[in-house]
Amino acid sequence: MKPLIDIYAAVFGWIKFNSTPMLKARVKKIEADHASLEYFIKKRIISDNLFGVDIMEEAVEIARLRLFLALAASANTVEELEPLPNIDFNVLRGNSLIGLMHVDAKGFSQKNLFLPPYEQVLRDRDRQLYVYRNTAEYMDDLTTLRDKIAEVNA
């Protein structure tokens, strides 16, 4: 995570001193909305850049916990703490040696006449994942969204 933190910090620094007024305004808004830029950067990295798969459920839980602890450790005061990001779909239990299942989109559509085309199923799933990730901070109960994603995956 350290190289990504360095890259993000360098980009923010470059934007502050060498960029367009639009990008400078965006960085100022981020700084105004968040008590700590370091916390914001780590949160973005954890939610948008880090992904993993492990066959052991315990290892998945430990990885998620370590990411949350690293994020919480970057806050210097209680006021800097923000809601933790939802990383249920960033770090998953699975077997990375097997890989992803290949689906013949044309064959899927021909065999499943009552279902939408496979590409649309993937787009719907991706949209639901996006909604799930980005509303995790604002909703108390995400089980309905998670169940819909699991249903599409099945």
Write a concise keyword list for the protein shown above:
154 residues; mainly alpha; two-stranded parallel ribbon; globular
Layout of helices and strands, plus pairs?
Layout: H1 2-18, H2 21-33, H3 37-48, E1 52-54, H4 57-73, E2 91-93, H5 105-111, H6 118-135, H7 143-153
Parallel strand pairs: 1-2
Radius of gyration: 19 Å
Biggest β-sheet: count, sense, barrel? 2 strands, parallel
List how many beta strands DSSP finds: 2
Mean pLDDT: 83
Biggest sheet, spatial arrangement of strands:
1-2
What structural category characterises the helix and strand content? Answer: mainly alpha
Oligomer: single chain
Question: Can you describe what's shown?
Answer:
The protein starts with a helix and ends with a helix. It is mostly helical and 154 residues long. Strands 1-2 form a two-stranded parallel sheet. The protein is globular and about 55 Å long. It has helices at residues 2-18, 21-33, 37-48, 57-73, 105-111, 118-135, 143-153; strands at residues 52-54, 91-93. It has 7 helices and 2 strands, in the order αααβαβααα. Strand 1 (52-54), helix 4 (57-73) and strand 2 (91-93) form a beta-alpha-beta unit. 62% of the residues lie in helices and 4% in strands. The protein has 2 domains: 1-96, no CATH class; 100-154.
